[in-house]
Amino acid sequence: MSEVFDERRRALEEDYFRRKDKESLERLRAALKAEAEARGEASAHEMRCPRCNGTLKEESFDEVHIDRCDNCHGIWLDAGELEQLSRQETPRGRWMSIFWPGSGGSRGDENR
User: How far is it, in rounded angstroms, from Cα 61 to Cα 102?
Assistant: First the structure.
C-alpha cells in the first residue's frame, strides 16, 4: 500500500517541478524580450538561422509555412511541416523535386 503513496508523491513532485520549469522559462523569455526591446532591436522576434546566423523569412509553399534563410538559403521546417508536405506528395514527388532536383520521387512509387 505504501508503494501507491510513494508513486503518487513522486508524480506530484514531478508535476510541481514541471510547473516551476515552465514558469522559469516564461520569465526568462519575457526578460530576453524586454532586454531586446530596450536595446532597440525592432526585429527581436525574428528567428536566426542555426547554420549561418542569417535571418529566417517565412514563406508559404502549398499552404505550408516554411522558413528560408536569407543568407545561405537553407530551408528549415517546424514540427509537423514535413508531414504536411509529404501528405501532399504526388507519385512524381512534386515537392521533393522542387527542393531536391533529381530526386524524382521514383523510389517507392509502386507501393502507392
Answer: 19
